[in-house]
Amino acid sequence: MPTLKQLETLAWIVRTGSFEGAAARLNTAQSAISKRIQALEQSVGAPVFDRSQRSARLTEYGEHILALGEEMLALQQRMIESRTDAPSKRQLRIGVTELTALTWLARFVTAMQREFPRVSVEPAVEHSRTLLEQLAHGSFDFIVVPDIFSEQSLQTIRIGEVANAWMARPGLVKSRRALSIVDLAAFPLLVQGSRSGSGLFYMSWFRNQGAIFDRTISTDSLVALIGLTIAGVGVSYLPRDAFMPLVTEDKLAIVRTKPALPPVPYAILRRKEPMSRSMEGIVDLVRGCCDFGRQFQT
User: Fold this and answer.
1) Does domain 90-161+265-289 have CATH number 3.40.190.10?
2) pLDDT tens across 105-144, in order?
3) pLDDT at 40 (0 to 100)
4) Residue 134, C-beta contacts closer than 8 angstroms, at least 6 positions apart
5) Which of 236, 181, 187, 234 lies closest to 212, judged by CA?
6) Which H or E run includes 124?
7) Residue 32: which pLDDT band, with cuts at 50, 70 and 90?
8) CB-based contacts of 166: which residues, under 8 Å, 6+ apart?
């Protein structure tokens, strides 16, 4: 019979896309990974990888074995979680963007400590594109990013959306009427770059609107974007509710536009694999904590 170690190895090869990636994730030699797969193929009596391909691509039978293996690994995890003598802490590795870190991340970590005391949350804050790449290599259990990535190997769970508005330093935009996109092009525009999920979302929307901006300054950092906008360098789109206190303090002013900016959808992205009961509870907790409207929630 195939062993759980062999099935785990198969799963990590598929998740990371290579034998080398699985070896790094499982902290073993690549030769050991190859031997486990050879032993697995001997056990099931058929090849699980297509040797004619240069990449680690499963055969049709290999996909069937992987699906069964994922179920067995999920059952193993449930058995571990049900043990009364299980370790007091297990790791939950999540990736989030700056906006989550600035708003509801602290609230989520506090709720996790209360609801799942045996789970240690290890968050990382990065750009959306970087988080997606690291998720593919097995660095996270899940990530929370704008819902703009279409990956067949990932499960997408929608959790909320963020309303954005154009903002500028008070007095920079003198018109009180709602500006068109053509009107906005008269000002230097501060935008998020191609590694930002929100930046990619609005780049696509601008193209659909036929907008052409001659003067743009791009940064993947939300904090830098806020600082440059307050300094009066240009007009930028920012999460409206989270940074309304800066408007109240007269550090920023909302620039009305027609059409208004569409909201950015946000989602949990995770590998397509059976979800344990504890992970279902954690996902529900993310939904309950997800609130992009206030900074540093507790």
Assistant:
1) yes
2) 999 999 999 999 889 999 999 999 999 999 988 889 999 9
3) 92
4) 95, 124, 126, 140, 143
5) 181
6) strand 119-125
7) very high
8) 179, 184, 235, 236, 237, 254, 255, 256, 257, 261
DSSP tag of 178: P
Task: Report the Cα–Cα distance between both ends of the chain, in Å, rounded.
Answer: 49
For domain 164-262, say whether CATH 3.40.50.1240 is its number.
no
CB 77 within 8 A of CB 119: no
- Own/partner contacts of 35-41, CB < 8 Å, gap of 24 or more, are 36/5, 36/6, 36/9, 37/6, 37/9, 37/10, 37/13, 39/3, 39/6, 40/2, 40/6, 40/7, 40/9, 40/10, 40/65
Distance CA 245, CA 274 (A): 42
Whose structure tokens read 């906005």? 184
Q: List Cβ<8 Å contacts ≥24 apart for 14-19.
A: 14/56, 14/58, 14/66, 14/153, 15/136, 15/137, 15/138, 15/153, 15/271, 16/136, 16/137, 16/138, 17/55, 17/56, 17/136, 17/137, 18/55, 18/56, 19/56
User: Can you count the helices (H) and strands (E) in the chain?
Assistant: 12, 10
DSSP secondary structure letter of residue 179: B
Domain 4-82: assigned CATH number: 1.10.10.10
Domain boundaries, the chain: 4-82, 90-161+265-289, 164-262
Task: Quote the pLDDT of residue 87.
Answer: 54
CA angle 123, 126, 132 (to 5 degrees): 95
Which residues lie below 8 Å from residue 70, measured CB to CB, with a gap of 6+? 11, 273, 274
pTM, 2 dp: 0.74
The answer to whether the 90-161+265-289 and 164-262 domains have the same CATH topology is yes
